[in-house]
Amino acid sequence: MIQVSGVFHHFGLRPVLIDVNLTVESGRTLAIIGPNGMGKTTLLNIMAGVLSPAEGMVWINGLQRRSSAEYELLIRKRTMYLPAEIWIPHGITGRDLVLGVGETWGVDNRRLFDHTDRLLKVFQMDRIADAAVSGYSSGQKKKIGLCAALASEASILLLDEPFSGGLDPAGLTAMKEILKHLTSCQDRTVVLTSPVPELVEEVADDVLILDGGRVLKHAPVRDVIRDSGAVTLNEALRKLIFPETEGELQEYFLQERTV
Question: How many CA atoms lie within 13 A of 64 on its CB side?
Fold first, then answer.
């Protein structure tokens, strides 16, 4: 379980998060969505302990982040954070990266080697797993990062834009289905950000909509769609946070015809 209470954050004089409160129960996937630059990644970084909030607190499975070295170590053993862009040591192979992450998180060797082989295969990375990651394409680097995060077997996954970064259809399908399995069958907790509402609708149980650094809505996906009178999450978001876009598009095309 993740709990966020009264979190504020700012960069310089610009407020980024304003009084954010939320709870993510075990066995559920929360998607943080909203316009660009509204604090989604900042909130995820605070949950992950990468940033300390200017005000407020975060608890992971009942332990307060950054309250003590002992608690922080326990939290990190249970949590995996994957940023949108990851730094990978020069010369390391994809297989060694995945195995190294699993070893760091204390996964049993036999289980780790078996799980690594299966992850590499399902993400279609097995043929290049023993080549240096520095030679991978951006999409392949994204896939190997996802494999490494999943190999950690952490009870909480914090994923910044896991469906972006050049991920191909095979990678998208694998990631969606694995995430759904982890929450429904293994009681894991997943928090992710994504700019693609269609993917969020397929994977997430709940959504947190940030607008201007504030929580505009936090509810199950189906409730957000129903309460906005929409049919899809994409339509609901247009009504909630981009209501002016339709009019602006009409104006754009009207002026385009007169040029």
Answer: 8
Amino acid at 214: R
Gyration radius of the chain over CA positions: 20
Exposed/middle/buried for residue 143 (C-beta within 10 Å: 0-12, 13-18, 19+): buried
Query: Burial code of 19-37, b = ≥16 C-beta within 10 A, e = fewer?
Result: ebebebeebbbbbbbbeee
Is the pTM value of this prediction over 0.85? yes
Task: Please state which CATH class domain 2-91+155-258 belongs to.
Answer: alpha beta
For the chain, give every domain's residue range.
Answer: 2-91+155-258
Helix H, strand E, coil C: the string for 132-190 is: EHHHCCHHHHHHHHHHHHHHCCCCEEEEECCCCCCCCHHHHHHHHHHHHHHHHHHCCEE
What's the CA gap between 237 and 250, in Å, rounded? Answer: 19
| 39: DSSP letter | S
Residue given tokens 């991920």 in the structure block: 167
pLDDT in tens, 127-136: 999 999 999 9
29-33 and 189-193 strand pairing = parallel
pLDDT of residue 259: 58
Alpha-carbon separation of residue 11 from 53, 54, 72, 193 (angstroms): 11, 10, 24, 20
Q: HSE (CB half, 13 Å, CA atoms) of 97?
A: 30
pLDDT exceeding 90 applies to what percent of the chain? 83
Cα gap 241→165, rounded to integer Å:
25
User: Which amino acid, one-letter code, is at 236?
Assistant: A
Contact (Cβ atoms closer than 8 angstroms) between residue 89 and residue 131: no
